[in-house]
Design brief:
Chain lengths: ~400, ~400
């Protein structure tokens, strides 16, 4: 019975044109790229090319390797996506022809990447061997290899895992060294990449940069609080903020460390997933003091602001991960609880915020909600969908 | 001699492929639309299609009528530009084929437009006859005609000029009635458009909406200060802000009323062109109090923040309009004075802010500056260039 269902699904997918083999006639049609995006299918090493005007799937691209923790950045024209796979694979896909343009295995184990402000360079942060590699976005040729070396407790030179890699204004990258307790900036504006090192808190595990590219904030596994570097005055060094935020305060088992990229920065406030609590924290960005705790139904993973900063959408960790809650940013009250499917992994707003796309891995489903009515307006099948990435990210700093 | 130069220019343009008649082979090439834009050539009724990766001109589209005060919005896929001409013409141009897709003369005299959050509707604000018309963005069919009627001082029903039309979250438009001293919201989310009227100050002449789509601010010609409507709580009505901002304070002849769309909103502060003064005003957005006055070299027209909020670029009114000044947003000091040519009319940042494009009408020139070095990196000829509009506007509220 299960086999017949699977066959039916396959046949339906073929009928719906969801296979990777588009006829050239179809894919050579002129079209804008501003409403396109990619949905990661984590179990099958494939991505769906989608469009957000009619909320439809245009095609599938296969052969991208291990996509279990994959993310995507875009070329500045919105045509090419750079997919960072867990297995160290960096794949450049063409959203117009729906095919792989180029692919390199650049390390043994990687954890995400970024594209430079001017679009010329793609950087990947690696666990093994620890460091950052920089590639030409056009050719995927290696242009810089930056090993994350440090002196360990035994006085030996070692290499650190790198995490929380983002792009910053002035054609720089910023990342953290998990083993070395440092934050590095990597300037790629000149002929040779230029590294500057800053001390940070213990064991940074992830990071974000604010939408204006000014504040780089790293979550810490080794101590309470977070480390923040002000890129307008980096010479002041990284400072501690939000003490009591981190794992020292936890009272429940932590099912999944929250993504820092999922912080909502809205109207001078940061809406932050509490680690190990059924709470969203609200911090005043002027002094990073804690203003409020909003009770929610589970441990938050992503806490995302709609583009108009009016709504805060929250996804949750196992075992309460089949629910999404929507908070009104003005009243800080939960205005709706939605059930988009089993194991909700990611949410992505359309650039002007009229809709939000939500992936439910264990329901093999992506659902599109209207942000005004909070009702579903479309949905489609996907193979264990995780991250959703629209091409409008090409136009934002730090995404 | 002048004639021979003109002929040479034409021949060069033809050689460079800058004429409107591209061969189908050239224009049917697949390409992303995320790095495209349009430059208005105001005297010749034409637009240049440009790309910001190589800083080059791809082609010219002609036959758009009177473009002396033209602006552009984009379809959500970034392929089509909607050009609003002064003569009431609404022209839909295809940036990929570089041709006019459709064109309607929708009124006798218009002053700009906007596209709805979901991209379905294009609205135009008209002087004569006064009101707003809404068109289907796909077909340019008229879907709603909203006359701006009011009761005048003689007790008669009259129609007001409309100004300051912007899109707002929730699929709404907002605009001001110059003759009626009102601000209207127009909700196009349902089957029939729904108008709500709010009292405003005297003679609103232009308006802006903050980047998050929350605050609608109208400049007033009839009194000091501005009117502000908080769209998160419109029931509170429009309130007066920045008293002393407007014309009542002026001490110099005003050569050009500043564009309100040119306000820089950066880090909780608004950088505002002073009317009739050689100053940029800095206001605290929490209470709209005046924090500081920055002396500049002339009467500012556009005061624009770079996407990273780090720099404020200022253009000026006649007769000191051949200069652009750059202010450091942190120190509020002028860090550079540039001379991009005669009669600087507009500036547009690339979406992630690595470069800025500047048009100099009377030098027939567009120059591209690197925002880090503040040096020119490219320039090209254009016929009396004015507004520059990149397709990344498709992804922003209120642009």
């Amino acid at each position: 019975m299960r086999q017949r269902t699977a066959m039916l699904v396959v046949m339906l997918l073929v009928l719906l044109g969801l296979n990777g083999c588009q006829s050239p006639a179809t894919v050579s049609e002129l079209r804008g790229t501003g409403d396109l995006g990619l949905v990661i299918e984590r179990a099958t090493g494939s991505v769906l090319v989608v469009e957000t005007t009619g909320n439809s799937v245009l095609g599938r691209i296969e052969g991208l390797g291990d996509l279990s923790h994959a993310s995507v950045v875009y070329s500045r024209d919105g045509r090419y996506g750079y997919v960072f796979g867990r297995d160290g694979g960096l794949t450049k896909v063409d959203l117009l022809t729906r095919s792989i343009e180029d692919r390199v295995i650049q390390s043994g184990n990687s954890i995400g990447g970024a594209i430079s402000q001017d679009g010329r360079y793609v950087a990947v942060s690696n666990y093994e061997p620890g460091g950052v590699k920089v590639f030409d976005s056009e050719t995927l040729e290696l242009v810089a290899d930056v090993p994350a070396t440090y002196t360990n407790a035994q006085g030996e030179t070692a290499r650190s895992k790198t995490v929380g890699l983002v792009d910053a204004p002035g054609n720089r990258f910023v990342f953290s060294l998990f083993d070395a307790n440092e934050i590095w900036t990597l300037d790629v504006a000149g002929d040779t990449p230029d590294v500057t090192r800053y001390d940070a808190g213990k064991a940074p595990y992830d990071a974000l940069i604010t939408p204006d590219g000014r504040f780089y904030i790293a979550g810490l596994f080794g101590e309470d609080g977070l480390s923040m570097l002000d890129l307008w005055q980096p010479e002041a060094g990284a400072i501690d903020i939000l003490p009591g935020y981190g794992k020292g305060e936890q009272q429940l088992p932590v099912y999944k460390m929250p993504h820092l990229e999922g912080w909502a920065i809205a109207g001078g406030r940061a809406f932050v997933p509490a680690v190990g609590h059924h709470q969203v924290l609200v911090a005043d960005m002027n002094d990073w003091s804690l203003m409020e705790r909003i009770p929610v139904q589970g441990q938050p993973v992503f806490v995302m602001a709609s583009p108009d900063n009016r709504q805060i959408w929250v996804s949750f960790a196992h075992p309460r991960n089949d629910v999404v809650q929507v908070i009104d940013a003005r009243t800080r009250e939960i205005i709706r609880t939605l059930e988009p499917g089993k194991a909700v992994l990611h949410m992505e707003f359309t650039p002007r915020g009229e809709r939000v796309w939500i992936s439910a891995r264990d329901s093999n489903r992506v659902t599109v909600y209207d942000t005004r009515t909070l009702e579903p307006v479309a949905s489609f099948s996907a193979e264990k969908p995780s991250g959703i990435f629209f091409t409008s990210r090409a136009h934002s700093l730090g995404l």
